[in-house]
Amino acid sequence: MTTPKVDLKNKWLAAVLAFLVPGLGHAYQRRRFKAVIYFSCVLGMFFTGMTLGEWKVVYWRWEPGGHRTFGYLAQVLVGLPALPARFQALRYTAPPLDGFGVERRLRLDTIKGSDVDSELDLPFTGRFRYRPDPDSFAPEAGGEFPNEPIINVTGRIRWQQEDGSFTGNFEGNGEDGKPIKLAIAGQPTVSPRVFAHGEITPSMLREEDTMPVRQFSNSLRYVHCDVEEGTRIGEIEGTVERSLVDWFQAPLEDKALEEIHGRLGRRYALAEVITWIAGLLNLLAIWDALEGPAYGYGDEEEMVEDDSVDR
């Protein structure tokens, strides 16, 4: 007794659905058991790899003569869960060369300019320090300008660009609870909005003779700018928030990859391989939704009647 063939309905639509969401094409064909199997196995493997790699293993970079994410060609077969990487690559903004000293090659993707945000209004956490006041220093006493103390501050920083100049302020409190209000003076330095695993290590405001521990973050952006309060000039350095939609599956820079590989080691490589396998497994699911099960119909040996048999 032969097994009845499955009604594949519109097989091309089923294949597209199977690509977008593993198992969805089979659910459309009412092949519910396979739908559950593919959905669980493919997405289970994919998100296991993402978790092992701290959600930084899926991204798209394609540089002539440089870094190319060939593995993404397998990851993208998972469908919708991996497609944001391609969109993020188009949104990706290169770091300013002067502020971050990043040597870059020209990308094939269309990259927006690396200018500072024309408008920003976000919570800020960091440090503040006045610059030495020349009027309070007596040259005849000799020595160097005394350093002002560094104050930890929290609050809100905002600015906007008008006619090429930046205006804005920082409002918050110092570590002693004293309110602080400072005006933005000059052009701020801020890490790109669309970025993954950017460095936020304090470099300007730190205690002398100390080497800061390098810090990286997805959800935070580095900010530094000059400020003024009346006649006094100072500077603030710290971080503002970066939303999930601005870092999820955004391209990783070489410096970020170096830090991740150094910290996670083989675990990161394993995470990449697991996501590749998930994509290749879904390729089989797409083919199954398109062509159906391999029943063997059409390749049976032709039955030839033997006339010599006595009927």
Detailed description of the structure:
The protein is an alpha+beta fold and 311 residues long. The chain has two domains: 11-92 and 263-291, no CATH class; 117-248, no CATH class. The protein is built from nine helices and eight strands. The chain has a six-stranded antiparallel β-barrel with strand order 1-2-3-4-7-8. Strands 5-6 form a two-stranded antiparallel sheet. It is elongated.
Key terms:
311 residues, alpha+beta
The backbone outline, from C-alpha atoms, is elongated
β-sheet strand percentage: 15-25%
Q: Give the class from helix and strand content and strand pairing.
A: alpha+beta
Estimated helix fraction: 25-40%
* Biggest sheet features: 6 strands, antiparallel, barrel
Q: What's the helix-strand series?
A: HHHHHHEEEEEEEEHHH
Cα-to-Cα separation, first versus last residue: 25 Å
Count of the domains? 2
- Per DSSP E runs of 2 or more residues, the count of β-strands stands at 8
- Radius of gyration computed on alpha carbons: 29 Å
Please work out how many helical segments DSSP would assign: 9
Task: Report strand order across the widest sheet.
Answer: 1-2-3-4-7-8
Assembly context of the chains: single chain
Please tell me the overall pLDDT. 83
Low-confidence stretches: 94-114
